[in-house]
Amino acid sequence: MIACLPASGRRRAGILCAMTEDAPGPHRPGRPGLVEVAARAGVSIKTASRALNGEGYVAHETRQRVQQAADELGYRANGMARELRLGGNTSTLIGMLGGDLGNPFYSKLASGLEREVRFRGLQLVTVNTDEDTRSEQRLTDALLERRVRALVVASTLPSHEHLAAEHRHGIPFVFVDRPPVGLSADAVLLDNRGGAHQAAAHLLELGHTRIGIVGDLSRLSTNQERVTSFGATLRAAGIADWREHLIEDAHDVDTAQRAVLDLLRRDPAPTAIFTTNNRITTGALRVLHRLPAPPALIGFDELDMGDILGVTVVTHDPENMGRQTARLLLERLDGYAGTARWVILPTRLIPRASSRRPPGTG
Amino acid sequence: MIACLPASGRRRAGILCAMTEDAPGPHRPGRPGLVEVAARAGVSIKTASRALNGEGYVAHETRQRVQQAADELGYRANGMARELRLGGNTSTLIGMLGGDLGNPFYSKLASGLEREVRFRGLQLVTVNTDEDTRSEQRLTDALLERRVRALVVASTLPSHEHLAAEHRHGIPFVFVDRPPVGLSADAVLLDNRGGAHQAAAHLLELGHTRIGIVGDLSRLSTNQERVTSFGATLRAAGIADWREHLIEDAHDVDTAQRAVLDLLRRDPAPTAIFTTNNRITTGALRVLHRLPAPPALIGFDELDMGDILGVTVVTHDPENMGRQTARLLLERLDGYAGTARWVILPTRLIPRASSRRPPGTG
DNA sequence: ACGAGTGTTGACAACGTTGACATCCGAACG
DNA sequence: CGTTCGGATGTCAACGTTGTCAACACTCGT
């Protein structure tokens, strides 16, 4: 505590010293509440409450005295107590469960969502599930106990029936990216099938017939849709054995990298590769970018530097997804009680250099 | 809604029925609390509480009855009430203020932080300030009213004296990326000076003498450190007029793009460019990647595809920053009450292709 | 048979806030 | 001068939970 002795003339030094006296500790004397403020101002606690909340019927002079007492004490209203008193549905917390909020897709989605709800005085609590079903369960419970006003879920679970009771109790759920199963709730989803179909059609058009696919965890519905739709398009074009060049469960960049290497070592190797999300595309790029004659590549999800790298992608707008999610959610909070609505957002193929590589001497 | 009012013997039947039909709405009949559970199980509310919390001294049979009642009612403990009862410092919320949580730097930092605190049963509330000082003020207040257990701040404000009272009241603050001013609090920072110095030295070594700098908002301390340290190194090498190629306040990608174009149009144009953060680097790349003979480039912050693009960067580890932040924060929550600690994390220059471009015929 | 333990349960207060209602005071009105 | 009115303030209960303490029903050892 005696620290910071060297009398340095630097501004910072002084500051450092000043604080050493009152470092935060666990044994604080309890924050002042309305009671303390009221006592100090010499009024009843109700009057103090009125004064601080700007209700009418408080004498000007009284209000000033209360305000001053509050300032001196460092009073800060206790939001929890207020919410408790006002009854459950005044919480200002919105919960969001995502697989990995470090992933640009989720973080942009969350960011877009947060920007919208912020204007309503709502705050976003985000938690990573790490795509783990048990985590998801536990964290959902924690958020619900915290009485979040609504819940945004990018779920990994195969079913959401366990949430039915909560849903009936009036907590709005909005599922993002992955649809609810066994529960009728709002959702904001991507046109995965459409996007995957476009990708396949694009490659077929360019003459590719041996196309590798690297997919994410096979249990995720998004991945299933992208893979099966892509495959269906290939099959429709007469490529029956498309599954032979399919590798799934490449959930992280390293695994994706290995999967791509695996595909390339085959004989004959695919002349094009479809990667079903941004992480996998990244892994693929790590492998392909140093090859003299890499196969064509199409990835699902836009990449930060997609245009500069010249990677053909099936793109969409995560921030907009966040905004749409906010819209559904806020309408529920505003009283809309109709049937569940699903918003399916479009995807768009952006052809760039990486798909212009011809099938070559396959 | 008309259904199931008919005389059912079950106490709660009416409510259950009501729920089965309708979508979630604002007019819910109030969630069941301990009172309802206790009534249904035929015990006192204290016994119900004991049973559900797994305290000792509850008969096996009683516990089962309570549990069943709770399940049937869809009971969920009210975390707010619990925290209120238990006294202020049991909140499980950690607040985090960031400029833009859609930026990979912040989102990775937040993700790393969240992963650490999650194991302690803590949840992270993140809010975007959009680098706006008024937003930051308001949102800080909101988080503090919500009684977050600790606050992580990437601040835009020039001073943090207004937080002193809170700090004394025992709320741990951890400043990230940008240091506290007028307040002695923990912080996790980057070695901005070191990194910028390395960048400058690297370019000088390669023979560059006319170097452009594109910086972020000039009021941000991080940017100031990076710019001034870079400049100091240039000046020490005899380049006195380095400020002539300095453009600041390029806060978004578009502005950065224009700034770079501006630099390139000069005569003579700089033979190298230093960009002080990831957004600006992105803007620069958009311009440079289609030039036949672009200037050399070094950027602060790693890029997702930095290795593939061959961009020389001054890198660091945002996720690790998040972990370090969590460490300081958790130690405070565990009772550490010593002086403020600043953790300065190292940065590292990764030379790649973009800086290997020679000064040319400058 | 009696006090001491042990297991089980309940009544009550309190956390900090606010809505409902009551009270008090002075001014305006008939 | 009594009545009414409205502004200003206070009292009380309640939100849902848990800690404290007391009470009860047993069993056991003496």
Give me the secondary-structure topology.
The structure is a homodimer of 362-residue chains.
Chain A (H helix, E strand, L loop, with lengths): L10 H10 L13 H8 L3 H8 L7 H14 L5 H8 L6 E6 L5 H15 L4 E6 L4 H13 L4 E4 L10 H5 L4 E4 L9 E5 L1 H14 L5 E4 L6 H16 L9 E2 L5 H13 L6 E4 L2 H11 L7 E5 L5 H4 L2 E4 L2 H16 L8 E4 L2 E3 L12
Parallel strand pairs in A: 1-2, 1-3, 3-4, 4-5, 5-11, 6-7, 6-8, 8-9, 9-10
Antiparallel strand pairs in A: 10-12
The structure holds a DNA duplex (30 and 30 nucleotides).
Overview of this protein structure:
The structure is a homodimer of 362-residue chains. The first copy, chain A, has 362 residues and is of the alpha/beta class. Chain A has 3 domains: 27-77, lambda repressor-like DNA-binding domains (434 Repressor (Amino-terminal Domain), Orthogonal Bundle), CATH 1.10.260.40; 88-191 and 318-345, Response regulator (Rossmann fold, 3-Layer(aba) Sandwich); 192-316 and 348-355, Response regulator (Rossmann fold), CATH 3.40.50. Helix content of chain A is 43%, strand content 14%. Chain A has helices at 11-20, 34-41, 45-52, 60-73, 79-86, 104-118, 133-145, 164-168, 192-205, 221-236, 253-265, 278-288, 306-309, 318-333; strands at residues 93-98, 123-128, 150-153, 173-176, 186-190, 211-214, 246-247, 272-275, 296-300, 312-315, 342-345, 348-350. In chain A, the strands form 2 sheets. In chain A, strands 2-1-3-4-5-11 form a 6-stranded parallel sheet, with helices on both faces. A 6-stranded mixed sheet of chain A has the order 7-6-8-9-10-12, sandwiched between helices. In chain A, helix 13 (306-309) links the parallel strand 9 and strand 10 (312-315). The longest helix of chain A has 16 residues, at 221-236. The interface between A and B is large, with 88 and 83 residues. Chain B binds a DNA duplex (30 and 30 nucleotides) through helix 3 and helix 5.
